[in-house]
Amino acid sequence: MTYVLVRATVGDVRQWKKVFEEITPMRKNAGSVGVRAFSRVDGASEVVILGHYSDKEKAMQMFQSQDFRDASARAGVKAPPEVIFLDELLDLPA
Question: Distance (Å, rounded) from C-alpha 61 to C-alpha 17?
Answer without folding.
Answer: 22
